[in-house]
Amino acid sequence: MIYSLKKDNYKNFDVFSQNLLTPRAYFIPFADREELEKTDIRTERYNSSRVAVLSGDWKFKYYAGCSEIPKEFNTDEEEMDTVAVPSMWQYTGYERPYYVNQRYQFKVNPPYFPEDCPAGVYSKKFIIKEVSGNFSIAFLGVAGSLDVFVNGKYVGYSEGSHNTAEFDITNFLADGENEVVAVVHKWCNGTYIEAQDMFRSNGIFRDVLIYRTGDNSIYDFEAKTTYNQDGSYMLDIIPVFNLKSEMC
Description:
Helix content: under 10%
Number of strands: 21
Strand content: 35-45%
Oligomer: single chain
């Protein structure tokens, strides 16, 4: 499948996110109570019929400079490696591990950074037997920036390495085989606010999930507690159903 991957989002200060679903509390939906009670909190995302975990083997192409990414990227013809997701480039042989505290890996000149930075192109094929209901894809952790494509079309963009990036992909899917492509730039506009005392590593470093929900599914919830004069507490759970608003 052919993709046009040349996006300038990572260096465009007018763009922080595109088509990103409103952030929400993390939880795993289940089809019914019986299904939920068969699992536990440590393995729930792997045992829900409402969630597909795309982690595992992905096709991958590393570029020392993002300018080397071809104008048209054909996932059926491009020679690509196979890597495990989650993983990071520095621990899979593409770059050396790099540790710094408050310093940066390049000459500091905010807001500018090396625009021809390394980038990685990931692709994964998956099966949707029947596109019914609502589908979203969630990247639980990607460093640094993330462009997402599905079946040849651009879906959206996100910065913020340790934040979940979730996108509505319902209208991009087809019955049967589908493909997701993710482009990860090593540095982006947000790099200057991610200088922390840690190893500076890059890639898709947490699970990738696909959620399938119905028209009456809970998208998010708010928990409020109230202290009563008799010493007891009241807990109110306020659900939000199928929130589709987006951050631009």
